[in-house]
Amino acid sequence: MRIVLVGPPGAGKGTQAAYLAKNLAIPHISTGDLFRANISQGTPLGQKAQEYMRAGQLVPDEVTIGMAKDRMQQADAAHGFLLDGFPRNLAQAEALDEILKADGLGLDAVLDLEVPEDEVVKRIAGRRMCRKDSSHIFHVIYNPPAAEGVCDVCGGELYQREDDSEETVRKRLEVYHSETEPIIDYYKAQGLVVTISALGKVAEVTQRAMGALPSREDA
């Protein structure tokens, strides 16, 4: 099964991608992992990406597309994959179609995680990280520490990342609406989009997603 996962920042795409990929026994391919792997391995594409990133510039679509193409052609993705963070815009979506078409393949579904904008802001702006260990994450509403501003695990100071401020979150949402949301209409025209609510507990959302995806027999 070949699936694209879309949704605004804060929709829980990374979390759901990991669970869905495990349940479906297909690799989870995220843009972040692609960049990290190519840069750490010093591939030509990784070197190109690093040059742009060091210059404070956006990495061109062709570099991201090249990384995704290489990853999708690896042996573990022969029977399917779940793409998280790619495609991010129409140009990338069209390129993905061409890559798959060249091998006589196509997508089975585009899973759209739907979350109200105010909930996105609440989820991200409420996050607090531990300065001693960034893996210790709390939330002022959903997972508050026992003592305000203090990590329950190691006693480190909790802080709000600059990227998690409400102003930054709303800017990220604007980018999502202008650049990524149009791919939903693009895939709707192909009859591929399955929209589910991403509200509720992680397991509930996963169950909802699994029930909405086409069966392996249909795919």
Write the layout of secondary structure elements.
Elements lengths: L1 E5 L6 H12 L3 E3 H11 L2 H11 L6 H12 L8 E4 L5 H13 L6 E6 L2 H9 L1 E4 L6 E3 L18 E2 L6 H15 L1 H7 L4 E5 L4 H11 L7
Parallel strand pairs: 1-3, 1-4, 2-3, 4-8
Antiparallel strand pairs: 5-6, 5-7
Fold and architecture overview:
This protein is of the alpha/beta class and 219 residues long. The protein is built from nine helices and eight strands. It has helices at residues 13-24, 31-41, 44-54, 61-72, 90-102, 117-125, 166-180, 182-188, 202-212, and strands at residues 2-6, 28-30, 81-84, 109-114, 127-130, 137-139, 158-159, 193-197. The strands form two sheets. It has a five-stranded parallel beta sheet with strand order 2-3-1-4-8, sandwiched between helices. Helix 2 (31-41) packs across helix 3. The chain starts with a strand and ends in a 7-residue tail after the last helix. The mean pLDDT is 94.
CATH class: Alpha Beta
- By DSSP (H or I, 4+ residues per run), the number of helices equals 9
Task: Work out the strand percent.
Answer: 5-15%
> How widely separated are the two ends?
6 Å
**Uncertain segments:** none
* The number of domains: 1
Helix coverage percent of residues?
Answer: 40-55%
What name does CATH use for the topology?
A: Rossmann fold
Shape call = globular
Strand order, sheet with most strands: 2-3-1-4-8
Class inferred from helices and paired strands: alpha/beta
Largest pleated sheet:
5 strands, parallel
Helix-strand sequence: EHEHHHEHEHEEEHHEH
CATH architecture: 3-Layer(aba) Sandwich
Kindly state the number of beta strands: 8
Mean pLDDT rating: 94
Organism: Streptomyces cinnamoneus
InterPro entries: Adenyl_kin_sub, Adenylat/UMP-CMP_kin, Adenylat_kinase_CS, Adenylate_kinase_lid-dom, ADK_active_lid_dom_sf, Guanylate_kin-like_dom, P-loop_NTPase
Function: Catalyzes the reversible transfer of the terminal phosphate group between ATP and AMP. Plays an important role in cellular energy homeostasis and in adenine nucleotide metabolism.
Subcellular location: Cytoplasm
